[in-house]
Amino acid sequence: xxxxxxxKELDTIDTRSLVDKVEDRLVNLLMERxxxxxxxxxxxxxxxxxxxxxxxxxxxxxxxxxxLGLIESKKKKGSVITSPxxxxxxxxxxxxxxxxxxxLKEIFEIRLVLEIGMADLLFHRITKEDIQQLKNIVADExxxxxxxxxxxxxxxxxxxxxxxxxNNLTLKKFQKMLLPVFDYVxxxxxxxxxxxxxxxxxxxxxxxxxxxxxxxxFRNGMRSHLENHFARIFE
Length: 235
Known about the structure:
The chain is 64% helix and 3% strand. By secondary structure, the chain is mostly helical. The protein folds into two domains: 3-81, Winged helix-like DNA-binding domain superfamily/Winged helix DNA-binding domain (Arc Repressor Mutant, subunit A, Orthogonal Bundle), CATH 1.10.10.10; 88-234, Up-down Bundle (Four Helix Bundle (Hemerythrin (Met), subunit A)). A hairpin with a 3-residue loop joins strand 1 (71-74) and strand 2.
């Protein structure tokens, strides 16, 4: 056997602990039984017998599922399936100071994709009161020039309002979770500070599109508005 083949066979060895494997098997088992939110999961003893492991291993695997928010303990019922907080655990680990540069930039790209893609939601749910609030937000912003760099406070106020208008709770939670990352990236020097930037669609022009335009015009406007963000990431 050659050294390369030996290394390849070593790479295929499952090095996960027994608890890791049982945790995965438990999730699959709950799916196979088509349990949904509020359903009671089998007792520890039944799970131990079904999976052929000790109750200690089952107990540790269940603890992990509780931490992930997949199950919770209910008095007189035992453990039940619950709807997890999708971003709760992620938010705890999303500290921009401990993320590498590539990860920070990719998270920043997610923000750009979301805001270009939320046009239909905005036009479906925006009100006259929302339009007026957006006008108030952008009233004091400076005019856009080729030497204009994004002001973080203006960005957060304007784009935060767009997420609010979307009336999508999960989207708003996601945006709130990413705010510290946006702020860090803006101030960290990771974005290339070009001396001459392309003139782009301003917040005020985006408000005008929201008031008088349509989703496609808004998508194009937002794409133009964020063009310098993309340039400062990719060039």
